[in-house]
Amino acid sequence: MQPRLFAPLTIRGVTIPNRIMLAPMNQHVSREGFADDYLLVHLGKFALGGFGLVMTEATAIERDARIAPGDLGIWSDDHVPGLARVCKFIHDHGAAAGIQLNHCGRKGSSQRSWQGFGPLNEADARNGEVPWPLLSPTDEPLGPGHVVPRKATVADLEAVAESFAKAAERAHAAGFDVVEIHGGHGYLIASFLSPRINTREDEYGGDLAGRMRFALQVAERVRARWPAEKPLFYRISSVDGHPQGWNINDSIVLARELKKRGVDVIDCSSGGLRQSTALENTLRHPGYQVPYSSAVRKNASVMTAAVGLILDARQAEAILEAGDADLIALGRQALYDPFWAHHAAQELGADPRFEKWHKSAGWWLEKRARGLEQVGYTAAGFPKQAIPERHQV
Ligand SMILES: Cc1cc2nc3c(=O)[nH]c(=O)nc-3n(C[C@H](O)[C@H](O)[C@H](O)COP(=O)(O)O)c2cc1C
């Protein structure tokens, strides 16, 4: 029987060839948001590695929506050709292409991850990385030294929703199959959802309906301008990680409302309200966020992606088998092994003849596997059992 991990998934008019998705991962290495050779090779290697859906990093819908200098951008039509080149490569190698659209909210104007996510400082400014103005539900900054954000007016929110929609149109022009709206990790949308940050008293704050208003507005606006035959994903922080914060029941309510507005998949992450996603979470173990995906999928009757320390093929298969998710998103494990999907297919017996690989590699690996079989090795090149010392060379 075909493993579930390698069953295609058709959503609207798009077929994702298997259930393995590259999780969005900021690279922070572009110049003025342009997709360059680095991005082509970086994302291209996951298409060559067998991922069914290759998702870009959080891509800024406005220049001031960047988290850090170097973020990928889609705030102008000039960004489209570079992204189109990346999409074409991904398609040419059999995968679907997705783009995550983001507004940083009060978490922008920050240093890159490896610089510590701190506020851009004078030394950064001397290097040309000058802080930019930020927008948030209130004027409370992320932390000491961070840019004090402007409290968003209703007109600001309308303008941001429009920027999301314009970005979706550009994503279509570039050839993407999937748009994912980033509604997690403390960025603008998430900061409206969380009662810990959104203390507004107007129609965009207060009760759950008020705090969800902006998230739903963006979904509606994007859905209206993103082709009906293309899937729309929405990433959420399923929980804030704080007892008085956003919780899983809130996420289930939000997922139901998003589904009504034409969102197809909820990508269930968590945390990240303040700095990196790690800070407000408890100790992490493999599959730590899978229960959120499971709860949202079962209670909101919507497709979900599970993410977070999903490490090996059998773990991924078991998540699908249990009905806890429809897609498996891999972040750091994909960085560790860009050919994870092909290796998983070997492990689960889904590709004994290496037919999922690019033929230039697959032809050789299949031939090698037949030879290795005869001397007691697996197709991946490991001894099936301990090799007697006298046979080792
Ligand atoms: C280098 C890196 C960059 C990330 N950038 C983003 C991002 O742009 N958007 C996002 O939603 N999550 C981002 N994340 C979170 C990942 O998508 C993922 O949810 C998280 O790493 C947990 O999955 P993992 O254990 O498989 O890495 C990033 C994670 C890493 C490691």
Describe the structure.
By secondary structure, the chain is an alpha/beta fold. It is built from twelve helices and twelve strands. The chain folds into two domains: 348 residues, TIM Barrel; 36 residues, no CATH class. The strands form three sheets. It has an eight-stranded parallel β-barrel with strand order 3-4-5-8-9-10-11-12, surrounded by seven helices. The chain has a two-stranded antiparallel sheet with strand order 1-2. The protein has a two-stranded parallel ribbon with strand order 6-7. The structure holds flavin mononucleotide. The site of flavin mononucleotide has 20 residues, from strand 4 and helix 10.
In this structure, how is the largest beta sheet organized? 8 strands, parallel, barrel
CATH topology of the largest domain: TIM Barrel
What is the CATH domain class of the largest domain? Alpha Beta
Q: What is the residue-mean pLDDT, rounded to a whole number?
A: 95
Main attributes of the structure:
TIM Barrel; two-stranded antiparallel ribbon; 12 strands; alpha/beta; globular; 393 residues; binds flavin mononucleotide
Summarize it.
The protein has 393 residues and is an alpha/beta fold. The protein folds into two domains: 4-351, Aldolase class I (TIM Barrel); 358-393, no CATH class. It contains twelve helices and twelve strands.
